[in-house]
Design brief:
8 helices; Coagulation Factor XIII, Chain A, domain 1; 6-stranded mixed beta sheet
């Protein structure tokens, strides 16, 4: 193997037995043999990749795609059914929170035990002990049993040991998601130092921003196969688009196309007593009522998931109990109730005096600007003086998917120039 290649994975496969109803005791297994049925599940279906010395590689993909299994095969916690893994150098790993720690032993004792598992002698551990404790910031707890530690303290100790064993390869599985933000930043700063010193790092995480910022390369796994491998930003973008499309397809299957007249909402609204309870979720004098509101995608389908930049139509079906001039409005809110945008027919200098008892009014948003996230739609009918007729807070929640990686709430067209 090339001296620059420290990990060479060659066409590995892995199957697991998934039991439907396995007996927990020997007696149950003997008496109820039919319950021991299982199916074999192919977790990895023949994947191959190489990692060079000093590279940081991120494994991405949805739950169950084989990321963690791949990492466990690299650590030799388990072995592939077929194929070969060739690795050069000492391996350190952070696979599972508290793995290699004994809960009744103190932090001090666990440092010696854990570091010895990685191949260090007592003399080598003695020389590194103060550095491990200092980095973990657990000096005052180091002689306490680790069962008294929080998950964040577990992570601090485990990470501190893992980076102080002179490893050539470090394998990390989601563990850095535990703990406070300041310590996570400290960990990644140290990882950058180790990487610049020649350490090879492989990370499994759902945090795509971490993959983009830290990793040179990303490997996208799906259904036990490598879909794409290459520069981290390019692979993350491809994965992001795939997950957005998958979410949209799932929504289309889950919500059948609706047709015909919308039915009157069952949500109760206050009686026409002349008094308005502005604290209610739905309030107004009912001179005009919202029968139903629909959010329509470019295919004119009522759905609750949309893409940034595509056309969105809000359609309000109404019933008029007392003819007058009315104002129709809508608003988008975040999940904490902050108004992101609101508009109505009066602000747009439109006068609406419905002639028919029942009707629909629609507003088209040609390029929907909200970025990825969950949001709330408010809809309302008020009279020309602003008195609520039917004000509907939190009419529905909806979700937006986006290829735009900007932060905040809105996508804004822009071009950089140098």
């Amino acid at each position: 193997m090339d001296n620059n290649i420290v990990i060479d994975v060659r066409n590995i496969t892995k199957k697991f037995k998934v039991y439907f109803d396995k007996g927990a005791q020997l007696k149950e297994r003997l008496l109820f043999r039919k319950r021991n049925r299982y199916e074999e599940r192919d977790v990895l279906k023949g994947i191959s990749f190489q990692v060079q010395k000093g590279e940081a590689v991120g494994l991405i993909g949805h739950n169950g795609c084989g990321k963690s299994t791949t990492l466990k095969l690299l650590t030799k916690i388990m072995y592939p059914d077929s194929g070969e893994i060739v690795m050069q150098g000492r391996i350190s790993s952070l696979i599972e929170l508290g793995a290699g720690f004994h809960p009744d032993m103190s932090g001090r004792e666990n440092i010696y035990t854990n570091a010895s598992i990685f191949g260090l002698t007592k003399k080598e551990i003695d020389a590194r002990f103060n550095d491990i404790v200092e980095f973990s910031e657990l000096a005052e707890f180091i002689d306490n049993p680790v069962r008294t530690y929080s998950s964040g303290m577990y992570m601090r100790l485990a990470f501190s040991v893992a980076i102080n064993v002179d490893a050539d390869i470090l394998l990390i599985d989601e563990i850095l998601a535990v703990g406070d933000t300041n310590f996570q930043t400290k960990c990644f700063n140290r990882l950058r130092e180790l990487k610049s010193g020649g350490m090879t790092v492989i990370i499994v995480t759902h945090d795509l921003s971490t993959i983009e910022k830290f990793c040179d390369k990303a490997i996208w796994l799906n259904d036990g196969l490598i879909v794409r491998e290459g520069r981290s930003d390019e692979v993350v973008d491809a994965y992001f688009r795939f997950m957005n499309d998958k979410k949209l397809e799932t929504e289309k299957k889950a919500v059948p196309e609706k047709s015909g007249e919308p039915e009157q909402s069952e949500n109760n609204i206050q009686e026409d007593s002349g008094e308005i309870d502005y604290s209610a979720n739905r309030f107004g004098l009912r001179h005009a009522e919202i029968k139903k509101a629909r959010m329509l995608n470019p295919e004119n389908k009522d759905t609750r998931i949309f893409r940034t930049g595509e056309r969105l139509t809000i359609e309000i079906s109404y019933h008029i109990n007392r003819p007058d001039e009315y104002v129709f409005g809508f608003g988008f809110y975040d999940m904490d109730g902050r108004c992101l945008y609101g508009n109505n027919t009066q602000l747009d200098r439109m006068k609406i005096s419905p002639e028919n008892t029942d009707g629909r009014i629609s507003v088209d948003i040609e390029s929907f600007p909200l970025l990825a996230g969950k949001y709330i739609l408010n809809v309302a009918i008020v009279d020309a003086d602003g008195t609520p007729m039917d004000f509907y807070r939190s009419y529905c929640e909806f979700e937006v998917v986006s290829h735009d990686r900007s932060t905040g709430y809105f996508s804004i067209e822009h071009n950089w120039r140098l």
